[in-house]
């Protein structure tokens, strides 16, 4: 197949890790007989410096017409003034909004070769394989925000429509069907009216369209606990924006390094946006030591969700597994032992991908 992929390297280690993701995509294309073309576009802090805009219109236009968008990370100390009117992350938020990306997918997977690097006990974290679906464009982050004129009272409104709940639960349930067949919906229905709507609509979707799934509802406070005491019990988890924000960050510590965690943001049509969950790591930027695996795994997600190349996505994920099993480590997962740089890690994945049977 032919596909056009927009590459938005961003700032800090973004360009370093995205370059490796690109090389892996090129290797996958060559191995499986596809033709991918890549276009580089500015976003974030460097786009503010060069164009006065964290999402210049040509970048947005290129993303709209691409088959998938792969982003590094944005931000850095030079743009970190909280009072600034234009900030790097505004580019990312605008991009998600403009592309209508309402579903944020975050796989949380432990790697056997790295379980000792997790802050949790090996027995708890071994075998973890969760796919989170976080609603991304609704809920309390997008509801009415109010502060009284004397500053003594504030209000943030959490609102969901049944349409918003229905579409994200449907996506999550469809993913569960392709995986181990279990769906967990997280809410706070014992207290919040909005969660009661969430729970009712989620149950309707499952009953009407996905009755083959094992389905459960869990309160968000209990889920925070279960995630670190019995994470292997979960397959696909779906929740609203704020609960998902907190739970996915909690879950991200399970595998042991931010450098391993990929994400996808999807809408109903148009390209998905794929990015590592880590930031620009200013402390190590420019040194060639960043872990590119999160970016490479994000590229695999792009092949799976935007290009319908499941076999190719799995091949990249298997290559990452093989490399980790072989003991090849970047500094963040080396636990003090020898480690390779960003480019060598990318090359190791490519070699494993090419030599896979
Ligand atoms: P960070 O994720 O950039 O770094 C946290 C720690 O993890 C650092 O010690 C860093 O060296 C390490 N780390 C992160 N990614 C790594 C990788 N691939 N390989 C090896 N080590 C890695 O978070 P931060 O320090 O809080 O933020 C730095 C900047 O990134 C800030 O300007 C922040 O706004 C921005 N940020 C951007 C995004 C995004 O673009 N999606 C997300 C988070 C933070």
Describe this structure in words.
Helices cover 41% and strands 19% of the residues. With 357 residues, the protein is of the alpha/beta class. It has two domains: 1-105 and 256-357, Isopropylmalate Dehydrogenase (3-Layer(aba) Sandwich), CATH 3.40.718.10; 129-253, Isopropylmalate Dehydrogenase, CATH 3.40.718. The strands form two sheets. It has a ten-stranded mixed β-sheet with strand order 2-1-3-12-11-4-5-10-8-9, with helices on both faces. It has a two-stranded antiparallel sheet with strand order 6-7. The longest helix is centred in the first third of the chain and has 19 residues, at 14-32. The model has no long low-confidence stretch (mean pLDDT 96).
Quick take:
This protein has 357 residues and is α/β, with parallel strands linked by helices.
- In CATH terms, the superfamily of the largest domain is Isopropylmalate Dehydrogenase
The general outline is globular
Taken as a percent bin, the fraction of beta residues is: 15-25%
Count the DSSP helices.
Answer: 12
N- and C-termini, Cα separation: 21 Å
What hetero molecules are bound to the protein chains?
A: nicotinamide-adenine-dinucleotide
Task: Tell me what the CATH architecture of the largest domain is.
Answer: 3-Layer(aba) Sandwich
Topology:
Elements: E1 2-10, H1 14-32, E2 35-40, H2 45-51, H3 57-65, E3 68-73, H4 88-98, E4 103-109, H5 122-125, E5 129-135, E6 145-147, E7 154-156, H6 162-178, E8 182-187, H7 193-209, E9 214-219, H8 220-229, E10 236-239, H9 241-251, E11 262-266, E12 272-276, H10 293-305, H11 310-325, H12 342-355
Parallel strand pairs: 1-2, 1-3, 3-12, 5-10, 8-9, 8-10
Antiparallel strand pairs: 4-5, 4-11, 6-7, 11-12
Helix pairs in contact: 1-10, 1-12, 6-7, 8-9, 10-11, 11-12
This protein binds nicotinamide-adenine-dinucleotide (NAD).
The site of nicotinamide-adenine-dinucleotide has 22 residues, from loops.
């Amino acid at each position: 197949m032919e596909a056009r992929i927009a590459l938005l390297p961003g700032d800090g280690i973004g360009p370093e890790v995205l370059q490796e993701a690109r090389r892996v995509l090129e290797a996958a294309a060559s191995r499986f007989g596809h033709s991918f073309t890549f276009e580089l576009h500015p976003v974030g802090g460097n786009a503010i410096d060069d164009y006065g805009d964290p999402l210049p219109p040509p970048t947005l236009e290129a993303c709209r017409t691409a088959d998938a968008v792969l982003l590094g990370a944005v931000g850095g100390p030079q743009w970190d003034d909280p009072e600034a009117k234009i900030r790097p992350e505004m580019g990312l938020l605008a991009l998600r909004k403009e592309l209508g990306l309402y579903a944020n997918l975050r796989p949380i997977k432990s790697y056997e070769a790295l379980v000792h690097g997790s802050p949790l006990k090996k027995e708890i974290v071994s075998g973890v394989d969760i796919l989170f679906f976080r609603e991304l464009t609704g809920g309390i982050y997008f509801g009415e925000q109010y502060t009284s004129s004397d500053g003594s009272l504030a209000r943030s409104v959490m609102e969901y429509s049944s349409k918003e709940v229905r579409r994200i639960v449907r996506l999550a349930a469809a993913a569960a069907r392709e995986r181990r067949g279990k769906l967990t919906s997280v809410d706070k229905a014992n207290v919040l009216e909005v969660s009661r709507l969430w729970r009712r609509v989620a149950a309707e979707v499952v009953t009407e369209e996905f009755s083959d799934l094992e389905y459960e509802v869990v309160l968000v406070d209990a889920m925070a606990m279960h995630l670190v005491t019995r994470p292997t019990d979960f397959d696909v988890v779906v929740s609203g924006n704020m609960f998902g924000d907190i739970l996915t960050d909690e879950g991200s510590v399970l595998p042991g390094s931010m450098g391993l965690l990929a994400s996808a943001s999807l809408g109903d049509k148009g390209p998905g946006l794929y990015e590592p969950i880590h930031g620009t790591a200013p402390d190590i930027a420019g040194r060639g030591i960043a872990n590119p695996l999160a970016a490479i795994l994000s590229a695999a997600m792009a092949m799976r969700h935007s290009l319908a190349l499941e076999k190719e996505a799995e091949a990249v994920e298997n290559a990452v597994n093989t490399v980790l099993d072989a003991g090849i480590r970047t500094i963040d997962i080396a636990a003090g032992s020898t480690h390779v740089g960003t480019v060598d890690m990318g090359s190791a994945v490519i070699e494993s991908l090419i030599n896979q049977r």
